[in-house]
Structures are given as structure tokens and as C-alpha cells.
Amino acid sequence: MSETPKVWTAALLVIGDEILSGRTQDKNVAQVATWLNVQGIRLAEVRVVGDEEAAIVEAVNALRARNDYLFTTGGIGPTHDDITVDAVAAALGVGVVIHPEARAILERYYATRGGLNEGRLRMARVPHGADLIPNRMSGAPGIRVDNVFLMAGVPSITAGMLDALTGTLEGGLPVLSETIGCWVPESEIADLLRQTEKAHEGSAIGSYPFFREGRTGANFVIRATDPAVLAECAEALLTGLRATGREAFPGGI
Amino acid sequence: MSETPKVWTAALLVIGDEILSGRTQDKNVAQVATWLNVQGIRLAEVRVVGDEEAAIVEAVNALRARNDYLFTTGGIGPTHDDITVDAVAAALGVGVVIHPEARAILERYYATRGGLNEGRLRMARVPHGADLIPNRMSGAPGIRVDNVFLMAGVPSITAGMLDALTGTLEGGLPVLSETIGCWVPESEIADLLRQTEKAHEGSAIGSYPFFREGRTGANFVIRATDPAVLAECAEALLTGLRATGREAFPGGI
């Protein structure tokens, strides 16, 4: 008997009043999700909390316990509302220390930018036992402690930190996907979708309707880790859609 | 002694594999947050889960218990991956029934669109005891049951449902905000921010740095429910920033 391969999962905790107030449109969920998939890790859940220690601590402990990895974005800057490091340390039951390498990085970075002050030195603080995640965009590094990865909130800086982590985390098989588009109301072919998914074990079909140019259509996304299952399921769906007398478009509309 | 006014809170549960896979960029968090604020309700937390009943049930019960309102987006369509109604009913411990008015709405809507079939009739299913939320964009209505509001995943449809709910929910004072922009690295004026916030009880200052045109700047968002507190805190911050010899811009950069 073959063993089912382990599914590696991660959670993402987005930290910041600016997301909950609606002021800032989050862009980190999609970029972290996409990056994780390439690492063979499935994003299993996301939470967004404000800049409140109790809320962060609760979420960190719930999410890190039941996932292989926990990523956080936001709250690692120099100002009073940046409390992620303290909250994660509290969640892990460890103290906060100045990381000597982080301090050295900040001293170099700010040498030509007015020098290290008290606010900037805050960005060298890490939970005890932490390692650094390189930041190629600006001075302050990200932080890894246990299975928790603290990253910046600004999406371009987050992207650089993810890039630095690429290939360093253990994962499983990446999820592959194919998209088929069709000018059909999804409600007309709901049976076909359900039956096609059921007939191909290891596949999942998502249905994403849209209204465009005054017409109703949908893209159907087939996902599987096994390329053969993916190809067979996609072919079956394409054939099924065309059997209804409609055009269907591999790659989506 | 004056009583502290009650703060009304809501949570948002975003349901859908397409968000967790990174395929779709969520747009509902920002629009629900903005809308809630106008109703005098604070968005306290957000979770994103996939199309899995156990995950939805757990999140629904955690979030509805500790907030005045819970909103969900996604998973109320006609296909096999639309399981929000069943999961919310399971969370509430009630059965699922066909809502006669929802059925009548769908019959009218699909009369000229090929008629009501099994998949489309799924969209008339509601947790027992539910009311409908009007859908001005397409056929299937949203659903209200207890303090839980089930809305569509497609942002334009969600917007119409929010519009239909405007003014119908009890809330408190809306949070007011003012923004001040300054070409300054936030790390240089972290002390000023902290002290200004501390000196104005009932205010909160968020700091949102950016890099633009090769320069470092930040927008500072002051929030308060009391317009006098907001005005005084904003004036103090403006004065403080200008005292450092920099230009500061009411309204933000």
C-alpha cells in the first residue's frame, strides 16, 4: 500500500488596523498564497487582527499549533503601533532581545540616513531564539522564531522576504491547476461539475462566475497534485461542457 | 459620571478556496470594513477559510459569539462547492429549508433564463428561521439568520447587499479619521507619534510609510469617535511635525 503524502499547511496572520478600517486593501494574502503553493505548502487559513496584543497572541497560538508554518505580515516597524514582536514573544512565552546582527544591519543602513535612534533600534528587537529573514528592499529584517515567520506589511518588502525564503522550507507536492472558461451560467452545469469532480479522485473543481459584456460566464479551476489526475479531469470537463453544445476555452476566459 | 458608549463590533468570514489559493484577490474585506464604519460598527477581526464545512462551522461559532454581528462572503451560489448555508445551519444547530420567498424570486429571475433547475433551487435554501437580504444585481438573495449575514462572494453583488442593509443595523458612533502626510521616515518621529496619541485620550494614530519618487514619507491617520478629540489631536500632530522643520500636509500625501 502506498502512503498518502503529507500535506504541508501554513496559516497567515495579517496584523494592522489599516486593513480592518478599510483604509488599505490587503495584497499580502494573494502573494503569500501564491508563493506558498510553489513551495508545496497549502495556505489553510488566514486571519486579520488589529494592533492589539491580546488579539495577536490568541491568533498566533491557535494558528501555529495546527499548521506546519505561520506567517505574519505587518507591525514590525519603528512606531508605537508596531507590536508584533512583543505579541509573538508573549505568545511563545519568551522574552524580547536585541538581535546583534539586526542591530548591525540597521547601523549600516541608517549610517547615511541620520543614524540609529530609539525608534529605529526597535526594529532590532526579536523574540528570544529568533533568526533573521533578509530584507533586500529596506533596512529592517524579517524574523523567524520556531515555526513563525514575521514579515513586513508593505507588500513589496514582503515580496523580498518571501524571495529570500524560497526553497528553504520543507513542503510537499505543489498543487497544480488548469482553468477552463465557458459562456454558461454556472447554475446550468452544476451537476456536470459535481459529477466530474467525483469521478476523478484527488481533483477539486472550483467555479468562478462572472458577468462581462452583458453575458454570463464562468471559469472552472481544476486543482490536483497529480499531473495525470489533473489532465484527465480537465479533459473530462472540457468534453462535458462541449457536449452541452457550448464552446469551452482551455486556459479560461 | 458619563457612561462609555457601547462599541459595536462585527467580524467578517471570507469563504472560498479561490482566496486561499491566491487565484482571486479579495476585495470584500475593504468594502465591508468601510461600510461597517459608516454604520457605527467596528470590524474587529477577519478570517478566511476554504470550502470545508468543519472550518466554516468553527469560525462561525467563534466569531458570532464574541461580536455583535458576523458577516460572511462567498459560497452561496448554485454549485457543489457552495456549502456556506449548510455550514452555517450546522453551526447554529438548525436545519436547512427552502425559503418560499427566495424560491419565488428565483422562479421570476430564471423565467426568461432557462427556468429553475436543481442547481438554481439550491440558492433558495436557508438555515431555518432565516430572513432574506435583497440582491439588486442578480437573482439569488443574501440571508440573515440571528446575528449572521450571508452575502455573495462577487464584490459587486456584495456591494448591492450591503447597500440594502444600510441603516438597518444598530450601531454606535462612527469612527472619524483625519490624515496628515509628511516626507519623513516614520522612524525619525516615532516619539512624536506616541506622545501625541497619549496626550489625546480616545485618539489612535496609525503610521503608514511609503517610498515614492525616490523619497521616504508616511501618512499618519488619526482616528477618534469624538470630533473635538480628532481635531485637537490632528492639530497637535501637525504642529509637532512642522516644529521639526518639515512640511506636513493635511489630507495626506
Task: Explain what the structure shows.
The structure is a homodimer of 253-residue chains. The first copy, chain A, is of the alpha/beta class and 253 residues long. Helices cover 36% and strands 27% of the residues of chain A. The first copy, chain A, has nine helices and twelve strands. The interface between A and B is large, with 69 and 71 residues.
Please specify the SSE layout and strand pairing.
2 copies of one chain form a homodimer.
Chain A: E1 8-15, H1 17-20, H2 28-38, E2 41-49, H3 53-66, E3 69-73, H4 84-92, E4 96-98, H5 100-111, H6 118-121, E5 125-127, E6 131-133, E7 142-145, E8 148-151, H7 155-165, E9 176-182, H8 190-199, E10 204-212, E11 215-224, H9 227-243, E12 248-250
Parallel strand pairs in A: 1-2, 1-3, 3-8
Antiparallel strand pairs in A: 4-5, 6-7, 7-8, 9-11, 9-12, 10-11
InterPro entries (chains A, B): CinA, FLAD1_M, MoaB/Mog-like_dom_sf, MoaB/Mog_dom
Protein name (chains A, B): Molybdenum cofactor synthesis domain-containing protein
Pfam family, one (chains A, B): MoCF_biosynth
Keywords, please?
alpha/beta, 253 residues, Molybdenum Cofactor Biosythetic Enzyme, Chain A, homodimer, 4-stranded antiparallel sheet, 6-stranded mixed sheet, Alpha-Beta Plaits, 36% helix
